[in-house]
Write a structure and sequence with these properties.
This protein has about 475 residues and is an alpha/beta fold. It has 2 domains: about 5-40 and about 80-85 and about 90-125 and about 180-260 and about 415-470, FAD/NAD(P)-binding domain; about 130-165 and about 260-410, 2-Layer Sandwich (Cholesterol Oxidase, domain 2), CATH 3.30.410. About 25% of the residues lie in helices and about 20% in strands. The protein contains 11 helices and 21 strands. The chain has helices at about 15-25, 50-55, 95-105, 110-125, 135-150, 185-190, 240-250, 305-315, 320-325, 360-380, 455-470; strands at about 5, 10, 30-35, 70-75, 130, 155, 160, 195-200, 200-210, 210-220, 225-230, 230-235, 265-275, 290, 300, 330-340, 345-350, 350-355, 385, 405-410, 440. Strands 4, 6, 13, 14, 15, 16, 19 and 20 form an 8-stranded mixed beta sheet that branches. It has a 5-stranded parallel beta sheet with strand order 8-3-2-12-21, with helices on both faces. A 4-stranded mixed beta sheet has the order 1-11-10-9. Strand 2, helix 1 (about 15-25) and strand 3 form a beta-alpha-beta unit. Bound molecules: flavin-adenine dinucleotide and iron/sulfur cluster (SF4). The site of iron/sulfur cluster has 14 residues, from loops.
Length: about 475
């Protein structure tokens, strides 16, 4: 049976961008329908056990992977809150040098001054504040000691958490709802302001009449189809799925850039065996950063987890793995993220999306340097042994692409904004070039790698778009 809903705006996807846009528009007086493929995840059912929670909260159980050299794990969240549901809660504004690049290279009107009110608004809504050293725990203290001894720039991270108890499982569902993800912040606000929120609804296409948006058609898990009639549609299905949605709808293909320009912030992590008790499961996993080399595209940020997580991530096998795990209380871990110059693309094959991404020589060099500096950081902190994510006997300087064990958490750019219709999918207001009433408010709009975690950038841009549509911008 096909049923129909009517709205002023139909928002597709309830993650960082979609939830924010839906709440702001609904509170601004618009009739909003929000369609999300995933479901509401009840925090009372969050067990803090990684294997089960991966299957519950992540798309494809967290097993999304890129094709290329090397293959890269690219986990995505799914449900009310999208990937913010499973993220680490780190909050950075877009660096000023990145905004300057967007102005000159992509012709975007994104000065630091003009975006400041939107960042401030998001940060207030999500209770963003700096982690205390006590909550950061002993794992952060190891990195801090190393950075201080080396004289490297560092600091405690700002996060969107309220009443955090440092239980250390942010990526597997915060059991106390301390992490202020959009599913428990903006979504309730949208609902309270009258937005209709439909979960388990996969949008198949955006509907058009003569290039103007008329709504969206979606399918429920039961197979039932329905449509939402709306003169404004905002795609926020995320960097990997928005291009497929636009392609299915015959939108955004004019520049040839749709699905291209994928940046990921490829990342890896190293472990160290310390003399002291670290017990890295205690404390905020991502609470500390070392940004001494950020201008070179190398950023260090905390990462940690309980024993079952460490057992999956330790870059060791056999007896060495067993020995390191038997010393789990003394293990420390830290992450390395590269602001990539590599660019991949996404393409639909049947109902699946294929992600192609190959690491450039420049980014391989960043990993080689970054891993060597990671060893330096741990050694300066007094590590007994350092376990780099490389095959036994391979030194960082000689690492090849296939030696690297990479994951990525920040896909961006596949429907990039560029003032010129010949170079980008979206214009400076995030409207799809060549269409009327169709906008995008997710990571796909972000035109380049940021060098810092992206959720604040995505949310600030979504807020700005909502203000524009409400005639307030
Ligand atoms: C483990 C992990 C840790 C991270 N840590 C941080 C961090 O600390 N700080 C930070 O800034 N960033 C972090 N990130 C990244 C950040 O969470 C994402 O960049 C951000 O959530 C992306 O927002 P989005 O709106 O583009 O997409 P998402 O938040 O992924 O939301 C997209 C939503 O759209 C839905 N959807 C997709 N297709 C359809 C369809 N056809 N119909 C209906 N719905 C659809 C999806 O189910 C999903 O819920 C992390 C990511 C991961 C995986
Ligand atoms: S560390 Fe804090 S934010 Fe993360 S899961 Fe635990 S209580 Fe939640």
């Amino acid at each position: 049976m096909t049923v129909g809903l009517e709205a002023d705006v139909c928002v597709i996807g309830a993650g960082a961008g979609g939830a924010v846009a839906a709440a702001e528009l609904a509170e601004g007086g618009m009739k909003v329908t929000l369609l999300e493929e995933g479901h509401w995840h009840d925090p009372d059912r969050f067990t803090a056990r990684p294997p089960g929670m991966l299957a519950e909260l992540y798309r494809d159980g967290g097993q999304t992977v890129t094709l290329g050299n090397p293959p890269i794990m690219l986990p995505l969240g799914r449900g009310l809150g999208g990937t913010t549901l499973v993220n680490s809660g780190t909050c950075f504004r877009t660096p000023s040098y990145v905004l300057e690049r967007w102005q000159t290279e992509f012709g975007l009107d994104v000065s630091e001054d003009s975006l400041r009110p939107f960042f401030e608004r998001v940060e207030k809504a999500l209770s963003v504040g700096e982690v205390t050293p006590e909550l950061a725990g002993a794992n952060a203290a190891v990195a801090r000691r190393g950075a201080e001894r080396l004289g490297w720039s560092h600091g405690y991270l700002r996060r969107n958490a309220k009443g955090c108890v440092g239980s250390g499982v942010c990526a597997f569902g915060c059991p106390t709802s301390a992490k202020q993800h959009t599913g428990i912040t903006y979504i309730p606000r949208a609902r309270a302001a009258g937005a209709e929120i439909v979960t388990g609804a996969k949008v198949e296409r955006i509907l058009l009449d003569g290039g103007r948006a008329t709504g969206a058609s979606a399918r429920l898990e039961s197979g039932a189809r329905f449509t939402v009639s709306a003169p404004i549609v905002i795609g926020a299905a995320g960097t990997i799925h928005t291009p497929a949605l636009l392609t299915r709808s015959g939108l955004g293909g004019g520049s040839g850039q749709l699905g291209r320009n994928l940046s990921l912030h490829p990342a890896t992590g190293a472990f160290a065996l310390m003399d002291e008790t670290v017990d890295m499961a205690k404390g905020v996993p991502q609470s500390f950063y070392v940004d001494e080399f950020s201008k070179e595209g190398i950023m260090f940020e905390g990462v940690a987890g309980p024993p079952s997580y460490a057992a999956m991530s330790l870059p060791l096998v056999g007896e060495r793995h067993e020995r390191a795990m038997s010393n789990y209380p003394r293990l420390a871990q830290f992450g390395l993220m590269v602001s990539d110059s590599s660019r991949g693309h996404v393409r639909s094959v049947g109902s699946r999306t294929l992600i192609r991404y190959d690491l450039t020589d420049d980014d391989l060099a960043r990993f080689r340097t970054g891993l060597a500096r990671m060893r330096e950081l741990f050694e300066a902190a007094g590590a007994r042994e350092v376990y780099l994510p490389l095959p036994s006997g391979v030194a960082p300087e000689r690492a090849r692409r296939r030696d690297l064990k990479l994951m990525a958490f920040h896909p961006l750019g596949t429907a990039r904004a560029d003032a010129r219709a010949s170079h980008g999918v979206l214009d400076g207001d995030l409207a799809v070039h060549g269409a009327s009433g169709v906008y995008v408010a997710d990571g796909s709009a972000v035109p380049s790698s940021l060098g810092v975690n992206p959720q604040m950038t995505i949310m600030a841009l979504a807020t700005r778009l909502a203000f524009k549509l409400l005639g307030k911008g």
